[in-house]
Amino acid sequence: MTKHIEVWMAQIVSIKLEELKSEPFINFNPNGRAPAIRDPNTDLVLWESGAIISYLVEQYGTEHVKSYETSKEKQHCNQWLYFQMGGQGPYFGQAGWFTVLHHEKLPSAIERYRGEVKRILGVLEKRLEGSTMAHAVTSCQPDEKSEGFVRVKAWYERMTSRPSMGEAMETRARLMDEQGLPWTGMPNDVESLAEYRELIGAKKGACSEER
């Protein structure tokens, strides 16, 4: 019987941001980032989203619902997965950081990363012209930044209307609420990222003193 895979997701399931850089999580992932998984069926611990996606598809996607069978198609799929890992993910993240979370407004950084977001969306817009969906393209979840890109926006709406997506987001919202966390991941009584950093530092200092 196949056992459930254990998933570590920062702020959502089993670990908080301040725990990512300390034991026991750091023993599983020396990079101190989430997500990470542990599959008891194969005795495998794995981190990095792209590696996790590739593993899950290869290990459990035997019916090729979100993957391909020929070498050419597999390599093209990997190409788009790496595009997400090296392009869409980092650029979207930096755009969000400098627009919302950074302690000071840096117009040059905001302009740069917003420009990269538009460039990435343009690449996806072209890719979605008559394309089929596979796990690599699915990993490029574009979110609400897709205004002005017709195919990307339509694809985003199809993705978010799927029952499985709705269930996942409801679970995420419930688990974050149980931890007293809004969408930013910071506690409800913390008003800024700087204040949150101070809080994390204080907790780490308290833990060090206890040891």
From TrEMBL:
InterPro entries for this protein: Glutathione-S-Trfase_C_sf, Glutathione_S-Trfase, Glutathione_S-Trfase_N, Thioredoxin-like_sf
GST N-terminal domain segment(s): 1-64
KW Transferase (keyword) present: yes
Keywords for the protein's UniProt record, in alphabetical order: Transferase
Reaction catalyzed: RX + glutathione = an S-substituted glutathione + a halide anion + H(+)
PANTHER family, A to Z: GLUTATHIONE S-TRANSFERASE-RELATED, GLUTATHIONE TRANSFERASE 1 (EUROFUNG)
Family: Belongs to the GST superfamily.
Protein name as it appears in the record: glutathione transferase
Organism: Monosporascus ibericus
Taxonomic path: Eukaryota, Fungi, Dikarya, Ascomycota, Pezizomycotina
